[in-house]
From TrEMBL:
It catalyses: tRNA(Lys) + L-lysine + ATP = L-lysyl-tRNA(Lys) + AMP + diphosphate. It is an enzyme of class 6 (ligase). This is Lysine--tRNA ligase. PANTHER family: LYSINE--TRNA LIGASE (PTHR37940). Gene3D superfamilies: 1.10.10.350, 1.10.10.770, HUPs, Lysine tRNA ligase, stem contact fold domain. InterPro entries: aa-tRNA-synth_I_codon-bd_sub2, aa_tRNA-synth_I_cd-bd_sf, Lys-tRNA-ligase, Lys-tRNA-ligase_SC_fold, Rossmann-like_a/b/a_fold. The gene is lysS. Its EC number is 6.1.1.6. A motif ('KMSKS' region) lies at residues 283-287. The keyword Cytoplasm applies. Keywords: Aminoacyl-tRNA synthetase, ATP-binding, Cytoplasm, Ligase, Nucleotide-binding, Protein biosynthesis. It is found in: Cytoplasm. Belongs to the class-I aminoacyl-tRNA synthetase family. GO terms for molecular function: ATP binding; lysine-tRNA ligase activity; tRNA binding.
Amino acid sequence: MHWADKIAEEIIASKEYKPYWVDDMKTPSGFAHVGSLRGPLIHSVIFRALKDATKEKVTYTFVFNDFDHADELPPEFKEELKEYMGFPLRKIPSPKQGFNSLGELLADDLKKTMQSLGVEAEFLSSWDMYHQGKFDGVIKEALDAAEKIQDIYERVSGSKKRQQGWLPFSPICENCGKVGTTKTFAWDGKEVSYKCEPDMVSWAKGCGHEGKISPFGGTGKLPWKVDWAAHWKVIGVTIEGAGKDHASAGGSYDIAMELCDKVFKFPKPYKLPYEFFLIGGRKMSSSKGLGVKAHDITKMLPPEIARFVFTRTNYKEQIDFDPVETMAIPDLFDEYDRCRTAYVDGSDETLARIFELSQIRDAGAKKDVFLPRFRDVANYMQLPDVDLTKKFEEVKGGKLTPEETEILSEREKYAKVWIEEYAPDEYRIKMSEGLPKEASKLDKEQKEFLSKVVGLLESGKDAETLQQDLYKVAKEGGDVKKAFSAIYLATIGADHGPKAAWFLLSYPKEKVIERLKEASK
Ligand SMILES: [Zn+2]
């Protein structure tokens, strides 16, 4: 049984988590790292498993915590937006056109990636919910229970950081607009008194303003652990997982669960602590700006294969995806194809289910489809004059259907990316550093041909024209194949290689000319 179906079964059998409301959230403070896709995809898979297992209504929401303050900025906007550190993300201007704020820009970026991977959540904004007054009730409950909240922090986390007179609310400073620098010191049941502290945090300086304001309707927000639990009650969440970094014993997930139960008197959601998604063996945190962004994943993999990375692995297991200079991507395609076969012929229930849950929409009919193997596509497409369709019709032993042709052209697109950016060197056909020793095999006619190629290159043609001209000149000498092999002997040390004109033009002209001159001596 697939892990998501097991969870769905457990949730339904418990009768505790009704109505079924799956939720996840994220603070849009930077272009999200690819690792942050694990949460939305785990929730998406569980959402689908629940829908398949019950006739009752299942809802999936995804909250952007866009009321949160900025305590870091995307590196590319750091200089431009530095004066906005400490502001709510929705009050920081967007550095790109078409968005009203930085928060909106960053949320939209992640939302588009999630949607392209088939995440079917309804998207909500914290900022909007606070401003619609939906948090007014929980704000009052939290302010009235400030001592109890501190008790829970202490008891669950074991920390002794109790502050005299602490209140769980951060107003937006009416003078400078920051929300990350304010501290509330009094609550009279109607209004809070606060100070915008110059030295409370290292990443922003408060203006020193003191004010008194109603805490309702979006004038400020709850601190994040309280805010997390408050969201569950406001939205009606019954199922919400959390990444391992929040889910350690006594960590923020545990604290939010206790606050939900004891302060907001709302049933704790179904708990689901999940493991990390690592790229290149390291946890590449978005705060360090390392590695791949969420929006890069669909440039690397077709959407359903990207989704497959998450659906096939149990949420309790770490995913180590290391695509650089490895066979991880071709292996992934092979495994996906195996799951597709299982789906069609019914040979393995779990693999078939993985395939089904990896689809962006529905899995379609269970019919046999010829799948061109990804690594073969990558290999053949680098060879000269190989017509991929013809080649795979040979492999299949028949004409490709329109669906198969579509699969082939998608694989061709991603194979090109793999070859250019990820493949190990031995899989990539590229010009050698120095003149290859195989170039000593060149005979007089081949050397003459190379001299003529130099002339063609110097005249600066586009690839299409150059290819035709190369062919013309090669034909004049009689043996076309032998002429072309001269190009490959001189550049990659083999007697065949990628389509010549495109290959030659993919390097700086001077470098290629120098090489061909050297080889034709
Ligand atoms: Zn201020």
